[in-house]
Design a protein that fits this description.
Chain lengths: 166, 727
Amino acid sequence: MKLNVNGQVRDFEAEEDTPLLWVLREQLGLTGTKYGCGIAQCGACTVHIDGEATRSCVRPVSTVTAEQKIVTIEGLSSDGSHPVQKAWAALDVPQCGFCQSGMIMAATALLKEKPKPTDADIDAAMTNICRCGTYNRVRKAIHVVARGGDPKTAGLSIEHVEGSKA
Amino acid sequence: MSAVLASPSRRSFLGRSTAAAAGLMFGFHIPFDAMAQGAQAPEINAWVVVKPDDTIVIRIARSEMGQGTLTGLAQLVAEELDADWSKVTTEYPTPGTNLARNRVWGSFSTGGSRGVRESHEYVRKGGAAARTMLVQAAAAQWNVPAAECVAAASVITHTPSGRKLSYGQVADAAGKLQAPAAADIKLKDPKDWKIAGKRLARLDTVDKTTGKQIYGMDLAMPGMLNAAIKDCPVFGGKVKSFNADAIKNKPGVKKVLQVGDSAVAVVADTWWRARTALDALPIEWDFGENVKTSNADVAAAMKEGLTASQAAVGNSNGDAKAALAGAARKIEAVYSYPHQNHATMETMNATARWTPERCEVWTPTQNGEAALAATSEAAGLPQKQCDVYKLHLGGGFGRRGAQHDWVQQVVLIAKEMPGIPVKLIWTREEDMTHGRYHPSTQCKMTAGLDAKGNLTALHMRISGQSILAAVIPAMVKDGKDPAVFQGLNPPGPESSFGYTVPNLLIDHAMRNPPVPPGFWRGVNLNQNTIYLESFIDEIAHATKQDPLAFRRKLMKDSPKHLAVLNAVAAKIGWDKKPKKGVYRGLAQTMGFGSYVAACAEVSVNKDGKLKIHRIVAATDPGHVVNPQQIEAQIEGSFVYGLSAALYGACTLKDGRIEQTNFDSYQVLKMDEMPAVESIIMPSGGFWGGVGEPTIAVAAPAVLNAIFAATGKRIRDLPLKNHSLKKA
């Protein structure tokens, strides 16, 4: 079987009903996409298929063609330089971080569809579960991206030391 | 100065060992190839390694699970080290290394909001001692007195001559010096802090935005197999039989085996294949006697305890029973709190490799030492022949701390496949139905009032489950679990009751249902604060007193409790009415060493739909290490506390938990998340925790606001079981 993931065509072997999530994680070694519930409730497994946010834990791999373009968190940028990733880092959004790949993929799809989302748009699109409780910073980070990327507009003071990996 | 090895007594405090630097350490970015790391780096002491390129590696014994302890503890060490923060990285020592080095890093336990407050002194002394040794090494190289040298941002300057050396340039020499005695180390006054106390960005954020962060579930090792497991759905049940032949030809299946008395596992090349095969495996269970128990039975047993004559006393003064008997007016109410699952986003998982000589485990854990003990027990090998490599946690909340049931399982599986690394991952369904649940209790509150509406007596009878009786039974004496009274204790540094009542009795009748309990973020402070703060609100309304004014009257002897309450009242604007249709509720408590209060503003529409508009929350944790991370913990505490209050309940039916996934165990999502305004008001002189206390005020502040809005007093949770629609 073949999939187009992050711009590369990848060959693999799996049963047809294997969820896309587990092919990504186990056959293709892309573990940034997470297993949280397996029933499309939590969104930790969110990836893009042809630009659309998709919960990969319930998507049989056989229903994705080799022509469809899959993007995972690893393919959003090679170095964390995507505007959404930058806003996330600037506002220290993640706590444990386990849900954040899915959050970022959902937010990226939302911002592509609605570059200036309202709070109601965010509420409707961002149904991912975070148990640590990062929702308010997720919202702030989405607005930062919509406003052009300046984290100062979030009104959240966080000191980044130059040269630090933080 | 010649190289002098530290004396044994000093080693136990700031011991150093080249063995540790030479490969027993476990770096964050090379999860299983620990041996490749380290050999080059000189260790100054157990806490600090300085590499020749000036990179500073700070060792962190506690576990990072999102709460920011990794960054906070590094800030404390770096502060006393006078380090260049931009050069700081971190690593976890392994519990096996800790054991081999006489527990030089102390406790690995990461729970009870203790990460910083329990270890701040010795980790700062570790940083200060390393700085002293680095300065001494530079002074020796220049042949000048150390007193003429100063350190700042990883550079030592000889003040009279202006000569400079970086930490990396003298690290080798510093590592050979004798450590200063612990008693001789003077710590900085927090008012002089430059790194600690600042709103610094976390050290572990970037990899969490790129998918590079490796969690336990993501671990991959050469030759590794994957396991899925099913434990008997009924608590206390056992495996009767299973038909392995039925699935042995399924793709990828390598082994089907029983694990302990109560579980069956399938090992396959991939986890998905293991899980699919396990789902198809015919298993017969011996459900045991708990199959006859359901939630109504649990509730009935606890109800009986509300009036039982035998109860352990946690706090008392005066004569509450006599005062109640003679009171002009009595108010009574019964509350209850259900079981909750931690529901960490990452389900339980671990990887193990067992041979007759050695057993190694890779797992997300809140307590590496407890995980090592569990490994050793299951492996049948002494601890010194085992080790545990801590991986990043996708949430902990107490589930991954005191008990390591999943670690024991994976070791038992790996033991049947010597030499092969096996990774066990729980399904969400397994995780939901085999938790270590927030204990369930009921509480009967009885207040006695005089003719003027003054509170003269209060009896708080708690009935229900004890965590310690199940998890640390040695701490239960004469039927008394001291942890049950969290937040209700007489004045003390850990948790204390903030009201002065002339006649007070708080007691507990232990009734333990067949649902395994555990420490759940906030622990017993959660339900105790709901009971107390809701009931205080009830008394205020019943006697037509303002809930803030009524509390203030009772809090004259508790100035720190009162200060956080006053802070939220001032910020919310309690003296002015909220806008039309919006109502307020208050709550305060003290636990995990910190004082917290909250005020919630809510509205309830004509259909009974609740909206939480705004929350103001205040915390006095004594000292503050990273304010922006405390704000994150406060916001997160509302998500955790309100998820439980609005939706959370794990109910028992026929001996098993009914809720199996996030569709039946709902949690708060973005659309319901209120704005949270944090007030961080450290008063100094003590060190309190920040990860948990605020959870306790989340629910009662909202419940009291709901009463103000609707006149409905919700006394049993979750809220989803109640209609808020006006009758």
